[in-house]
Design a protein that fits this description.
This is DUF488 family protein. Pfam families: DUF488-N3i. Helix content is 44%, strand content 12%. It contains six helices and three strands, in the order αββααααβα.
Length: 120
């Protein structure tokens, strides 16, 4: 099984499933209203999350454009700390299923989709 088939995307608010494998939270902030016990997070690599500045720009007043967000976020993923965290998650995916979890509603048009592409 290749890593491309073992990276899944889910909202963190969905009930955990056994087939999730390693559950990786990819949000910088803890999801509102969710207990750590209910979330069942295995790994929380904050170095893979968009910077606070980028997150505020994208979700702020006037909302940033997705393609510009993607470009800025990919540049952040090229940093040393993010590359190390990417290597860690790729290693987990090589061993089995990895599920990227986020509170965002549109997983594909967010940092989660960009991150999944980078991992695959």
């Amino acid at each position: 099984m290749t890593a491309a088939r073992t990276v899944r995307l889910r909202r963190v608010y969905e009930t955990p499933k056994d087939e999730d494998g390693t559950r990786v939270l990819v949000d910088r902030l803890w999801p509102r209203g969710l207990s750590k016990a209910d979330a069942r997070i295995d790994v929380w690599p904050k170095d893979l999350t968009p910077s606070t500045e980028l997150r505020r720009w994208f979700h702020g007043p006037g909302q940033g454009e997705f393609e510009e967000f993607r470009s800025r976020y990919e540049a952040e993923l090229d940093g040393d700390a993010a590359r190390a965290a990417l290597a860690e998650v790729r290693g987990l995916a090589a061993k089995g299923t990895v599920t990227l979890l986020s509170a965002v509603k549109d997983l594909e048009r967010s940092h989660v989709g960009v991150l999944a592409e980078r991992l695959r």
